[in-house]
């Protein structure tokens, strides 16, 4: 695993989601980290989680989910500041194929970083 891409699996979080990847700002161009996940039989469609804290900090547990399809939208309206949501939506649009491939298990964590595109502010 690379230093830039962190598998955030812990024993405590394993029951919640064992295959989440934390993508730091240096890989995404976003001002905050985001998490993508594999589909582990979830009852919902593909989502990313977005830290509400700018910088590399943030917690998976408190990060609001953003649905990817049919277009990016907040699961809980107003969970992100409007400017952050616009930027995250642009990042999702740029990286939709990577997010979906990871969700579907077509690629693993090693295949994510080389394909990521950074969003421009």
Features:
single chain; 121 residues; alpha+beta; six-stranded antiparallel beta sheet; 4 helices; 16% strand
Shape, please? globular
Strand adjacency order, main sheet? 1-2-3-4-5-6
Whole-number count of domains:
1
Query: Residue ranges: pLDDT <50 for 5 or more in a row?
Result: 7-17
What is the count of β-strands?
Answer: 6
Give me the secondary-structure category.
Answer: alpha+beta
In angstroms, what is the radius of gyration?
13 Å
Oligomeric state of this protein:
single chain
Mean pLDDT reading = 88
Could you give a short account of the major beta sheet?
Answer: 6 strands, antiparallel
N to C succession of SSEs = EHEHEEEEHH
Strand content: 15-25%
User: What percent of the residues sit in helical stretches (DSSP H or I)?
Assistant: 25-40%
Describe the structure.
By secondary structure, the chain is an alpha+beta fold. It has one domain. 28% of the residues lie in helices and 16% in strands. It contains 4 helices and 6 strands. It has helices spanning 11-14, 25-28, 82-103, 109-112; strands at residues 6-7, 20-23, 34-37, 47-50, 65-67, 73-74. Strands 1-2-3-4-5-6 form a 6-stranded antiparallel beta sheet. Mean pLDDT is 88; it is low at 7-17.
SSE order and pairing:
Layout: E1 6-7, H1 11-14, E2 20-23, H2 25-28, E3 34-37, E4 47-50, E5 65-67, E6 73-74, H3 82-103, H4 109-112
Antiparallel strand pairs: 1-2, 2-3, 3-4, 4-5, 5-6
Quick recap of the structure?
The chain has 121 residues and is α+β, with helices and mostly antiparallel strands. The chain contains four helices and six strands, in the order E-H-E-H-E-E-E-E-H-H.
């Amino acid at each position: 695993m690379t230093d830039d891409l962190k598998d955030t699996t812990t024993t405590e979080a394993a029951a919640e989601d064992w295959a989440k990847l934390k993508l730091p700002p240096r890989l995404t161009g976003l001002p905050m980290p985001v998490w993508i996940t594999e589909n582990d039989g979830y009852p919902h469609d593909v989502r990313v989680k977005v830290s509400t804290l700018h910088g590399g900090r943030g917690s998976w547990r408190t990060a609001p989910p953003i649905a990817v399809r049919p277009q990016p939208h907040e699961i809980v309206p107003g969970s992100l500041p409007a400017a952050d949501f616009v930027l995250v939506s642009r990042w999702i649009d740029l990286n939709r194929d990577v997010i979906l491939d990871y969700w579907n298990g077509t690629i693993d964590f090693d295949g994510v970083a080389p394909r990521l595109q950074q969003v421009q502010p």
